[in-house]
Specification:
Layout: H1 9-31, H2 38-45, H3 49-55, H4 59-81, H5 88-105, H6 111-118, H7 121-147, H8 155-167, H9 170-175, H10 180-195
């Protein structure tokens, strides 16, 4: 069993949570979110079941916290990776690219899987966690429509469709059936054909 090396209680807790989330990512990738148990997570993380419950009282709390961590990672990556003074098209490309990279770097169950595993009561909590990410996308779409880059459409419906297209790449990426580069090229081309007012290049910005 791996040991945690920390000089303070706060560091110890942070390292433990990191290991728990790593275990959730691996288990959900290998087995599916609906089949994993708190005991399996504890074993994979190298902590006792009792210790795990001290951090997360149940599976719902664990999965919602894990989803929040992934969302925070994405938002921070987007803020770092977005070119300055970028137009809406460049921002949308960056959004898609970072979403796909995040799916592979931090495998996590889809909203449908979490809802199926935990029941409908978890949906509202899950929606609250991913709302910042959705706001980024609707902001990009609104900006593009106002600038004339994107055709006018229902912003919320368009955002849901884009997230669905990106989410469909999760399993192929995790299984190795495709790569981030291929997914980025295909998803970006598909999305831009749907939202732009003029034909767009299918090559990602800065790519070959």
């Amino acid at each position: 069993m791996p040991k945690i090396s920390a000089t303070t209680l706060g560091e110890h807790r942070a390292q433990t949570v990191d290991r728990v989330f790593d275990a959730v990512a691996q288990l959900s990738r290998d087995r599916g979110i609906d089949t994993i148990s708190m005991t399996q997570v504890a074993t994979a993380a190298g902590v006792t079941r009792t210790a795990l419950y001290n951090y997360f009282p149940d599976k719902a709390a664990l999965l919602l916290a894990f989803t929040e961590r992934v969302t925070t990672y994405f938002i921070e990556s987007f803020e770092r990776g977005l070119p300055k003074n970028a137009d809406a098209t460049a921002r949308l490309r960056a959004f898609i690219r970072l979403q796909l990279r995040g799916l592979l770097a931090h495998p996590h169950p889809s909203a449908a899987e979490v809802t199926a595993a935990l029941g409908p009561d978890a949906y509202e909590s899950l929606a609250a966690h991913v709302a910042p990410m959705q706001r980024i996308l609707t902001g990009i779409l609104t900006e593009g429509m106002e600038s004339g880059e994107f055709r006018r459409a229902d912003v919320e419906a368009t955002a849901r469709s884009i997230l669905a297209v990106v989410g469909a790449e999760r399993l192929p990426l995790i299984s190795g059936a495709t790569t981030v580069r291929k997914s980025e090229r295909n998803v970006t081309a598909f999305v831009l054909r749907g939202v732009t007012t003029a034909p767009a290049s299918t090559a990602p910005a800065g790519g070959k």
